[in-house]
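@channel sequence for tomorrow's demo:
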Amino acid sequence: MVEPSAAPARTTGAPNPSVSVIIPTWNEVKYLPTLLESLQNQTRSPLEILIADSESTDGTQDMAEARGALLVPGDRRGPGEGRNRGARAARGDVFLFIDADCIMPPDLLDAIVAAFDEPGVVGGATGFMPARGNLVERALFSLANGYQRAMTLWGFPHNAGYCFFFRREAFQALGGLREDMPLNETHDLALRSRSLGRFVILPQTVQTSMRRFRTYGYVDPEGIRRLDDPVLRDGPHVRRTIPPGARPLTEPGYRALRPRPRRR
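structure tokens (generated this afternoon):
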């Protein structure tokens, strides 16, 4: 178990910045080992791996510590709070946040460090595709990736939340993630980062589990990820699917859905 500390290992301006990997978890013993294995296969080693666990009961904590990760336990208050909790304990120059059911490509940490060689970059995100997804699932994810990249290029940074990263000082200057937002807090963080510099989308892609989509149906990917969060899952919710002709709201930075009016 690790106690929170604000002391960084190095300054982010160092030529070889250190990376802290922060993983929020709640009952992830089935998926977390695969993510940790992909971390072991990186071409660059992280400074540390922090598991911000929220009262798991399936052995997640014991498994994580047995594999050398640092445990940062806390209450079940949602993934935003878990990520912030992990960031407070992290010592690295760069914070990498990734969901427990993702798989990283082996060059991801190197690509993240290289991204900060570009002028003005304060953070960014990766692409995301379904692990063992079928043709329709891969097509839907491809559209979501294109939307994320296009909106970011047009000056409205998007961050679906599967895997994203920030300079330590930028994340702290922004006050971290908003814990009062049950949805879209990662988009909000990306949008607010415009006040400090550039938010970029890397060409690297993480694979993510399709468990939530196949359990709850297809809605906005950011929202469906949150249905597996204990704060929302333990409360009443209704299974929703995308209605025919649904389209995104026009407000930049958010991905809620509304139905297209039907012609009479």
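heads up for whoever presents: Confidence is low (pLDDT under 50) at residues 1-12, 220-264.
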